[in-house]
Amino acid sequence: MTTLTAPVCVSRSAKKDPSPWLRKSDGWWYITPSGGKAIKLLKSTPDEWASIKAGRGVPVPLEVAGEAHTKLNARGVAAVELLDPLIVELCERFLQWMPTKPINAYEAGTIKQYASCFKMLSAVFGKVRLSELNDVHIEQSIIRYGWGEANTTKNVKRLKTAINWTIKRDKLKITNPLADYVLVPVGCRDTEIRPEHEAIIQKHGGAAFLTFYNMCRRTGARPGEIASICAEGPNVCKRDDDGAYYFELLKWKNAKKLKRADKRIRRIYVPSELQGEVARLLGEHPTGFLFRSKQGKNWKEGTWHPHFRYLVSKYALPASITMYSARHQRTTEYLENNVPVAIVAELLGTSITMIEQHYNKINKGRSLLKEWANKG
Q: How many CB atoms lie under 10 A from the CB of residue 372?
């Protein structure tokens, strides 16, 4: 994978660079310890060699970095480039490893998200070494890309994951410089979709979008879960013994985290007022995705997010409202109506801990707490 472009040495004249380098004349990777002779590592691929001969940069392959680590350790030589790698090199090696993870390998979509994140971060501080990384570099990225709380949290977590992997793999005697970075809470959990906001969305959302939005809003499901529902497949629409429609998901966010096989199947119950809508969608789309845009394509974050942002900007809705706010609003309604936390967690496909952590101020129902307090 060559998503990022890390600088490499292209000739022996670049001895001072502490990273593995590729020699033009023979196409082999070398590493040159400070004050020592070049150590031969591995043969490059034809594409890598051609790129170097053309004067283009080539990321240091994961196998080459591992070979350098092994040979330098065998000779008792401290490798600066491995003990303190550049952020761009660290990210590239992690991306190369992701699809080869022995257990629960990362899916292609997740790898793509990590690659996009690392590309943005590397543009800001890719040539910074791991030991030099600090909170200021994250703040620079936030300013440059205009990240909100949610994007900042996601991207910092991704970088932390790559750093922790590097430290563990290479047995680096260094702590994660972002270990103490305080991840800001996701603000949309505190953003309510008020009745006046809901009225605007219902009036100007458009038929296709409202079909998708209303299902998210009434079920409290994640937008990606509703978007993934098909007439057949791993995430499918079914009917129970009473003839009511429900959605059964085999592929969803927390499926891999659950140890019990029966718990990995998520069921989303369709409210009675939307049963007719599901029947209509099944009639229109007997195969493929049920929820589709006006253009007939299935909803994705790249389509529902711009549509929702248009409504927010066009009709002066609070900027912090997103599609995910529909899920959080539904959670709030459940809790304020004294629905037990365990049932809310099951309906939303999340954990009791998550709800208690993020919805503590309304958790367990205000009126219920008052009732029990008065019984004392």
A: 10
| DSSP secondary structure letters along 166-191 | HHHHTT-S---TTTT--PPPPGGGG-
Strands (E), 72-196: none
Distance between CA 372 and CA 366 in Å, rounded? 10
Q: Which residues pair with 12 in a beta bridge?
A: none
Does pTM top 0.90 for this prediction?
no
266-301 confidence digits (pLDDT tens): 889 999 999 999 999 999 999 999 999 999 988 987
Domains defined along the chain, listed by start: 190-369 (1.10.443.10)
Q: For residue 19, how many other CB atoms are within 10 A of its CB?
A: 22
Q: Token pair for residue 220?
A: 């409290």
How would DSSP label each residue in 34-55? TTS--EEEEEPPHHHHHHHHTT
Tell me the C-alpha distance between 91 and 86, whole Å: 9
Rounded CA separation 303/64 (Å): 40
CA 291-358-252 angle, to 5 degrees, is 35
Tell me how far apart the alpha carbons of residues 96 and 90 are, in angstroms, rounded to a whole number.
Answer: 10
Residue in the structure block whose two tokens are 């490499």: 8
Condensed to tens digits (0 to 9), the pLDDT of residues 181-223 reads 876 554 445 567 889 999 999 999 999 999 999 999 999 999 9
Residues of the chain by 3-state class (helix, strand, coil), percent to 5 = 55, 10, 40
Angle, nearest 10°, between helix axes 62-74 and 87-97? 110
